[in-house]
Design goal:
2 domains, about 85% helix, about 270 residues, MetI-like fold, mainly alpha
Length: about 270
């Protein structure tokens, strides 16, 4: 009897957990269905938007800037994440706090920080201005804003990946003649590769969706989030819904492909 009651209790708990957990999935799915139904009310607007050159340009600028920002993040953030995973000193909590700061800042404040840093009279703006590179209302400003908000997403994921790599494996490589750089590139980086790629995907998605930080420094050329906001304020839902549907399809496809690639590359036995 007690055993039966225990099994029944476990079954009930399992069902409750499944139902509770699926509420979030249902919420996202319901929002997508609602968007799809609204778009179906005016299929002509969807076709017209798909051929709109301004929409295509905004999507291209957004994806290009996001990809470039993630590339810079990978170049600068991977060594930082590795050092953070291998360092144990009093400065580490401060470094972790600085890396995670963009997570808790209002997006407008993040944009203000980027603007103060890269505006023409800012400390970095002056340096890059001397090289002929401008950030205000320019593509580099978009990249800088996306880079700033993506820091914690990439560095955090990469740091977790390197933390899971036993340092003994690198020490073995060192005893076999590999230098510190070789041990990092040949041992640590491949073993943490899946987490690095996952962090890059999340940082890319975060960059694509950024609005406030971008418009603070570069309202032009418009990224897709800026264009959606402008179209909504000028023309209402019809144009906005069509753009959102197109963006969701493209972004959803890219994210699924990248996550699938990460799974296959680091788990060759996984079903495709």
């Amino acid at each position: 009897m007690a055993s039966g009651m225990s099994r029944g209790s476990i079954r009930s708990t399992g069902i409750a957990l499944i139902l509770t957990g699926n509420l979030l999935v249902v919420l996202v799915l319901l929002s997508l269905v609602t968007l799809g139904l609204r778009a179906a009310e005016d299929p002509g607007a969807l076709a017209e938007t798909a051929l709109d050159g301004e929409v295509a340009s905004a999507i291209g600028i957004t994806f290009g800037a996001a990809a470039l920002s993630v590339g810079i993040l990978a170049l600068l953030g991977t060594p930082l994440a590795y050092i953070m995973s291998r360092t144990r000193n009093r400065a580490l909590p401060l470094v972790e706090a600085l890396v995670d700061l963009p997570l808790i800042l209002p997006h407008t404040i993040a944009g203000l920080l980027v603007y103060l840093l890269f505006m023409r009279s800012g400390p970095l703006g002056i340096i890059f201005g001397g090289m002929g590179l401008s950030f205000e209302d320019a593509f580099p400003g978009i990249v800088a804003a996306m880079l700033f908000v993506g820091i914690p997403y990439y560095v955090g994921a990469a740091r977790d990946g390197f933390t899971r790599v036993p340092i003994e494996l690198e020490l073995v490589a060192r005893t076999l003649g590999a230098g510190p750089a070789s041990a990092f590139i040949l041992v640590a980086l491949p073993l943490a590769g899946r987490e690095c790629l996952s962090g890059a995907v999340v940082a890319w998605g975060r960059a694509v969706g950024e609005f406030a930080a971008v418009v603070m420094i570069a309202y032009h050329p418009p990224v897709i989030s800026t264009l959606i906001y402008t179209r909504f304020t000028q023309y209402g839902l019809a144009d906005t819904v069509a753009i959102a549907v197109i963006l969701l399809v493209v972004c959803g496809t890219i994210i699924i492909v990248l996550r699938r690639a990460a799974l296959v590359l680091w788990r060759p036995d996984a079903p495709v």
